[in-house]
Amino acid sequence: MKIRVKVNGTLYEADVEPRTLLAYFLREELKLTGTHIGCDTTTCGACTVLLDGKAVKSCTVLAVQANGREVMTVEGLEKDGQLNPLQVAFWEEHALHCGYCTPGMLMASYALLQENPMPTEEEIRFGLSGNVCRCTGYMNIVKAVQSAARRLSGASGEAVGEVATSGTAAD
Amino acid sequence: MFPNAFKYEAPASVDEAVRLLAEYGYDGKVLAGGQSLLPMMKLRVAAPAVLIDINGIDALQGWREVDGKLRVGAMTRHAELEHAKELRDTYPLFFQTARWIADPLIRNRGTIGGSLAHADPGSDWGAAMIALRAEVEARGPQGSRLIPIDEFFVDTFATALNEDELAVAVHVPTPKGPAASRYMKLERRAGDFAIAALAVHVALGTDGRVSEAGIGICACGPIPLRAAKAEAALIGRPLTEEVIVEASRLVPEDAEPADDLRGSAEYKRDVLRVFAARALRDIAKELQGKVGIQ
């Protein structure tokens, strides 16, 4: 079946089998391997992408269901060689260890901050409850999302100057 | 992992979907949010020959009030019901239940109609719709019919829907008088199916006595169940501590939990009793002083 999908702003046309899952389409057809496949059973959230702005588990959506829609993957966070403030915050707060869950954590966090720009710790934990991390114990992930939220809202102190140049995350 | 090969149909209208269901019969399977069906297909537990994707049918989305009922389209996503501020005052059980379903990512895809039609014994919506005495609107080649929720769940993963019928909406009566509700769920870990869960809806009459009582149970039997004995013990009585204790003790009597990895049957029964008492106490507190306002 022929599909047209916009991924990270670029329109792709492809001929896919209906049973192809979005995660595999992104990784194997488009070679966008930033989206990870973890549990493959709708549990871990490593494959999280945005589908028309909503965070979904791409291992549990058919590629044909993305026909005519927009997908954003972790590769879409960086703009013009500048990391998204969320990525900077994950780096600075050491919000990862092995890094396997990170693309999913970033996309779920991105969606969370779009809906709730200044979440409480509880709201962050609730919002990321579909994403599993087996290394960090979540402490630094929560800290990173809080830090990114402060940056994106311009509320932080010294950090703003250095990150402001990459501040296209609100788009 | 990937599913068996299947033919993919994406109807744009309910009529077209029903026509396809009639055409393919047993070979056809409706794809709603897909958050249970697609994992089952990947695990090859399910292998439908034809998938009828109803995500493109706009008429199945959203909700409206008609004739003293709230009609919620089958393809309304859990997340929409979780965040719908306009439903919170009159139909609070929707957001109270929705926020407990799986996790935020799954709630962005999963739908209320899909969840009900899937008929998992642990269906959170199943318990909530029992508490609210909902009806499922089914559309087939001969037209529409309303199926009371107590007749809808037939067995585990089996409903009263015919092969050529599509669940298009769920109807919930508007509560008469001051009402409150609670959804109580115990899970092993975030996003899991329930160890035991309970939905409670209570409305009071002008005399301050219980005029509507709905208690739905899930994950404690082959299908979501109604705590009919406890409901009967509440009707016509004030929500005093004595009545609450009596009614909550009756809740486990209508449950049929099994010993499994999530806990023993005895434990689950006690969870239901404790949940019922907590929910009813909260509801009593919330409704205190609200009688006679209308």
TrEMBL record, chain A:
SUPFAM superfamilies cross-referenced by the UniProt entry: 2Fe-2S ferredoxin-like (SSF54292), CO dehydrogenase ISP C-domain like (SSF47741)
Any matching Pfam family: Fer2
Entry coiled-coil feature ranges: none
GO molecular function annotations of the record: 2 iron, 2 sulfur cluster binding; metal ion binding; oxidoreductase activity
The organism's place on the tree of life at top rank: Bacteria
Annotated InterPro entries: 2Fe-2S-bd, 2Fe-2S-bd_dom_sf, 2Fe-2S_ferredoxin-like_sf, 2Fe-2S_ferredoxin-type, Beta-grasp_dom_sf, Diverse_Oxidoreductases
Keyword DNA repair belongs to the record: no
Pathway entry: Alkaloid degradation; nicotine degradation
Statement: the UniProt record of this protein carries the keyword rRNA-binding: no
Keywords: 2Fe-2S, Iron, Iron-sulfur, Metal-binding, Oxidoreductase
Record-annotated 2Fe-2S ferredoxin-type domain positions: 1-77
Name of this protein: Carbon monoxide dehydrogenase
UniProtKB/TrEMBL annotation, chain B:
GO molecular function: FAD binding; oxidoreductase activity
EC code: 1.2.99.2
Superkingdom of origin: Bacteria
UniProt KW Flavoprotein keyword: yes
Residues covered by the FAD-binding PCMH-type domain: 1-177
Assigned keywords, A-Z: FAD, Flavoprotein, Oxidoreductase
One Pfam family in the UniProt entry: CO_deh_flav_C
The protein's name in its UniProt record: Carbon monoxide dehydrogenase
Organism of origin: Hydrogenibacillus schlegelii
Lineage: Bacteria, Bacillati, Bacillota, Bacilli, Bacillales
